[in-house]
Amino acid sequence: MGRCRHVVRHARSNGSRQASGAISLSRPGVVREAARLGVTPAQVALAWSLAVSPNVLLIPGTSSRRHLRENLAASSVHLDADAVRRLSPM
To answer: Is the Cα dihedral 46, 49, 88, 25 positive or negative?
Structure first.
């Protein structure tokens, strides 16, 4: 367990953020942004995670091939700087 804390501390000191759980799919802003872009809230959440932490490898869970395709398509979702700012937790 000590090694995990060391890795997290090192990542944070180098500008990385923990993306997991940082943005909720049911947040109204996420749902609005998804509707605006014509994508799913999950794709917005993944796109946001990629935008704020490009040095983090995302490993989303998936329960079906359809979800896998949806998750992969999130890499093509572009969030402009204003959207990233609006979606970022305070």
So the answer is: positive
